[in-house]
Amino acid sequence: MNAVTEKKQSVAHSGKDGRWIVRTRILRLGYLLFDGSIIGIIIALVGLLYVFQYGGQVVKQQEDKLQLPESSIIKTSDGTTLRMIPLPGSGYRHSAELEEMPALLINTFLAVEDRRFYSHQGLDYKGISRAFLNNIVDMDLSEGGSSITQQLARNLYLNRNKNVIRKLNEASIALALERQLSKQEILGLYLNQIYMGRGQYGVKAAAERYFGVSDLKKLEIWQIATLAGIPKGPSIYNPVDNSTLSKTRSNLVLQIMLDQGLITNKQMLEARDKQYHPPAANREEVIGVHYVDATLKEAAQITGKSVEELRTGGYTIVTGLDIKAQQALEQAFLKGSSFPPDGKDQQVEAAMTIMDHRTGEVVALIGGREQNEGSLNRATIDARQPGSSFKPIIDYGPALESGKYSPNSILSDRKYAYGNYVPENLNGVYQGQITMSRALQKSVNAPAVWLLKQVGISSARQFAAKLGIVLTEEDNHLSIALGGLHNGVSPLKMTQAYGVFANGGKFNEAHMVRTIMDSKGKVVYSHLSESQQVILQRTAEAMTMMLRNVVNEGTGKKAQMNRPVAGKTGTTQLDLPGVSKKANRDLWFVGYTSEWTAAVWMGFDRTNKDNYMTEGSGKAAALFSTVMSKALSGY
Fold first, then answer.
1. Is the N end or the C end of the chain the one with fewer CB atoms within 10 Å?
2. pTM here?
């Protein structure tokens, strides 16, 4: 074989090898593409399965998310809004049905947020594609292309992190919402759920906050444009935080409204000329913190719902609160001169309640000198010893009711030992005999204990129960004659009890709540005042006469006003070694006019050798006079 032949054979052989290598590489690439396609299909199928399943599970497991929490409202006796209860996180929401919203408001939000809302099934693919291309150009995830349904899904179930997994979950939930809810339901949820800045959720809360408009159909075009512009950036486009940016944004919305044929050019120009002015605040000061606390607790007992459910259920609770009385009460509590000096490491505390004894409605209440949300409400806690203010309830009232005694009856005023119990008069003076009226007027101890012994503890306890104060078995002893109770009593209970004397012997349960309406305006509770004649009218009249003498000539002189006042002071002493004999633990005054009954308590939360009072119950009587004189002025 010559060289030429060998060369030809070599070239032919190498050509075959080259073609074989090319074919092999093509086959390998084909296999890789095939495998990649299979894997891609599997991933796509898994992704589709995930999208289809995930959202449905989330919506099913968290159905409560579709029930939007709504701020409840507490109203005063004249219908004035006392407080809108903040939601968890300090936001406010007032829901509204779509029928309550003007068509222009709804259509404007659709034009700005999701023009294809009624044509897609939760995902606006055109919007997503546009946002995807813009994000590629901008090299970030600044644009989302989210439909209204996606926004609702994100706001209800997800956080605001911008990543692929969150967007996938958002899409999945949006599709699930579209399967479960109608378009109208989704739109209604969105317009009530969307954050509108300044702690306001939903268009109704925003309209009330920014414009003072509660009826959404009374919104003007420029106001609708302002509201529709806020969701893009709630913190920068709301008119309160940045009126300039808000104006710019609303002008853009007005142009969209024009382009979509929602308004005319003339209407747009007129709307652009409007200038924003914040509505006058309904109330500059927050009042009734303790009253609201007591109201919610009472409403919980009435309805069987938790306080949290009542706070976030959109309820409207109408109370018996009188704004003038509550303001008089709170203003008096701001003055340090109204109270005894503070202790070494504690402030003297106080509580006061005022009730209309004719109905039982509590017209004003304060539970302490610090009027903060969640602070201790001393007005409603049965924890303090009432001292001599308890004598009408446990000693003199039962005696009068028995028919065996009158205000002029002669009582024993001697120092007796009742077993180990030896009550003493504060001044150490005993007259031997004294009239009932005089004994009450001067708050003499010995006759009160003697009288309880004559009437009987059982009869006296039954009488107290008729006034709303139920004593325990531990109170079966004569020291209750001077207000020595096992559990103590609250100012509210004392007010309720004295209210029977003020109301001719008729009992009305002390209450804050007048009516409760749900978020739809349906009345779910209405208090029915049922005055019950629990003691004889002559008993109540005789007691009133004696209690007026206490104020006119006895220990309660500092409670005098420009109208007749009946009432009783009360003091409990602190008995500790090394402490002054004038040291007091509790100071009381409970009294009434023809209109209202009130109780005042003063003392330390923890009375000890470093924290006690040396002033007497005249301080409590003086506070009663100060508050009631101002609260009742004009009545």
1. N
2. 0.83
Please state which of the ranges 77-91, 406-420, 466-480 shows the lowest mean pLDDT: 77-91
Taking the C-alpha atoms of residue 401 and residue 399, their distance in angstroms, rounded to an integer, is: 5
Specify the range with the lowest mean pLDDT, choosing from 158-167, 529-538, 608-617.
Answer: 158-167
Q: Where in 48-91 does DSSP place strands (E)?
A: 73-75, 81-84
- For residues 36 and 145, what is the distance between their CA atoms, to the nearest angstrom? 30
Dihedral through CA 25, CA 31, CA 35, CA 37, nearest 10?
A: 90
pLDDT given at position 582: 83
Is residue 537 classed as helix, strand or coil in its secondary structure?
helix
Q: Answer yes or no: 246 catalytic.
A: no
Nearest to 357 by CA among 231, 511, 158, 564: 511
Three-class SS of 417-477: CECCECCCCCCCCCCEEEEHHHHHHCCCHHHHHHHHHHHCHHHHHHHHHHCCCCCCHHHCC
Alpha-carbon distance of 313 to 74, in angstroms, equals 12
Which value, to the nearest 10 degrees, does the dihedral of the CA atoms of residues 33, 36, 41, 42 take? 150
Query: How far is C-alpha 491 from the geometric centre of its chain's CA atoms?
Result: 22
Q: What CA–CA distance (Å, rounded) separates 94 from 199? A: 12
Distance of CA 492 to CAs 89, 135, 382, Å? 32, 64, 9
pLDDT digits (tens, 9 = 90+) for 545-577: 999 999 999 999 999 999 999 999 999 998 888
User: Using an 8 Å Cβ cutoff, are 351 and 400 in contact?
Assistant: no
Contact call for residues 146 and 171 (beta carbons, < 8 A): no
The catalytically annotated residue of 113, 178, 298, 401 is 113
Q: What contacts 564, CB < 8 A, 6 or more positions away? A: 548, 593, 594
Q: What is d(CA 546, CA 408) in angstroms, rounded to the nearest whole number?
A: 10
528 by Cβ neighbours in 10 Å (0-12 / 13-18 / 19+) ranks as exposed
What are the pLDDT digits (tens) for 601-633?
999 999 999 999 999 999 999 999 999 999 999
pLDDT reported for residue 29? 75
Give how far Cα 328 sits from Cα of 45, 496, 525, Å: 71, 20, 30
| Catalytic residue status for 388 | yes
Pairing mode of beta strands 92-93, 200-201: parallel
Instruction: Report whether 158 contacts 173 (CB < 8 A).
Output: yes
pLDDT for the residue 141:
41
